[in-house]
């Protein structure tokens, strides 16, 4: 017993010694953002910065790929050749960013992947909400709200990005067994102007549309604007995802959206995870963030968590 205790004390001293020897004065983190054209991504960077600012030993370098996967690849490569201590990436698309992320790992740079995934498992930690679960909850809410029948338009997020794929497949599972019909669907690539244009086509083709399920709030808002221009906005319900206070939640308060599902940015969690990695602590491979549903009935009470 006594030997065991001595051994434990010796180990503890060794470990503290090691971490002191390895500790750096400043840790540089490269953050590769897919784009800053969308308010949600501006919020993600702000959340990262706010958390990083609490730690004087962290230096952040932000790069904005302006919604261009090739540009984002070069940004990752630049971070690697510059020798950052850690990389955070929110990739525009899964496939084109998989290899550069794997290269960073091979170069010994830990990588935290935020919100959109890469393919395979060559990264240190993935942080994000469960998009399948959100899509499923949206499907169930829509099924209940329309009493199991009606014509639905689905405006999808970029289908080469994993949240777009998962918000679709979760939704299909969520409406299973109902008489809901998806009369029109299109990839609006997460963009409000694209959603508006697609909705104009849907409105021209279908005299009866009961609800729009858009994979993000800008998409739902674009659809609402198209319906409003056609004088049909009061006949249609609109559902989105993100729930930024100044965007989706404000739309629910204004009666523009009937529901929005929260999609947290994970910015603070990314920095907290980076600090653990710097301290030499083991981190889990996957951190799943929660979500909430906001409707006009519960918005003033702060929404309702998904079970
Ligand atoms: C912003 C955004 C969000 C969406 C997320 C999915 O670029 O489109 O609206 O929830 O990306 O990755």
Task: Tell me what the structure shows.
- The chain has ten helices and 13 strands.
- It is an alpha/beta fold and 307 residues long.
- It is elongated.
- The relative contact order is 0.13.
Task: Describe the structure concisely.
Helix content is 45%, strand content 22%. It is built from 10 helices and 13 strands. Strand 9, helix 9 (245-253) and strand 10 form a beta-alpha-beta unit.
Order of helices and strands: HEHEHEHEEHEHEHEHEHEHEEE
User: How does the helix and strand content classify structurally?
Assistant: alpha/beta
Outline, from the CA principal axes? elongated
Radius of gyration: 22 Å
Instruction: List the total number of helices.
Output: 10
**Largest sheet, strands/sense/barrel:** 7 strands, mixed
Q: How helix-rich are the residues, as a percent range?
A: 40-55%
């Amino acid at each position: 017993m006594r030997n065991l205790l001595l051994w434990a004390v010796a180990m503890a001293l060794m470990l503290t010694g090691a971490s002191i020897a390895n500790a750096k004065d400043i840790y540089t983190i490269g953050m590769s953002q897919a784009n800053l054209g969308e308010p949600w991504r501006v919020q993600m960077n702000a959340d990262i910065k706010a958390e990083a600012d609490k730690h004087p030993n962290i230096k952040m370098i932000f790069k904005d790929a302006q919604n261009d996967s090739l540009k984002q690849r070069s940004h990752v490569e630049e971070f690697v050749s510059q020798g950052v201590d850690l990389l955070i990436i929110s990739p525009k698309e899964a496939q084109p960013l998989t290899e550069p992320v794997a290269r960073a790992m091979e170069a010994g740079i830990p990588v935290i992947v935020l919100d959109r995934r890469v393919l395979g498992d060559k990264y240190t930690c993935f942080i994000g909400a469960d998009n399948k679960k959100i899509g499923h909850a949206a499907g169930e809410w829509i099924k209940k709200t329309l009493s199991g029948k009606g014509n639905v338009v689905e405006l999808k997020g970029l289908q080469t990005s994993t949240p777009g794929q998962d918000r679709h497949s979760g939704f299909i599972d969520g409406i299973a067994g109902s008489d809901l019909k998806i009369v029109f669907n299109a990839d609006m690539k997460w963009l409000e102007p694209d959603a508006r244009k697609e909705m104009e086509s849907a409105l021209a083709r279908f005299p009866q549309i009961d609800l729009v399920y858009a994979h993000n709030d800008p998409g739902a808002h674009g659809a609402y604007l198209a319906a409003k221009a056609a004088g049909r906005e009061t006949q249609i319900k609109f559902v989105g995802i993100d729930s930024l206070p100044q965007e989706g939640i404000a739309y629910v308060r204004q009666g523009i959206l009937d529901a929005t599902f929260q999609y947290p940015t994970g910015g603070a969690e990314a920095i907290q995870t980076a600090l653990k990695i710097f301290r030499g602590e083991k981190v889990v491979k996957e951190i799943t963030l929660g979500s909430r549903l906001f409707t006009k009935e519960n918005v003033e009470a702060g929404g309702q968590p998904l079970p």
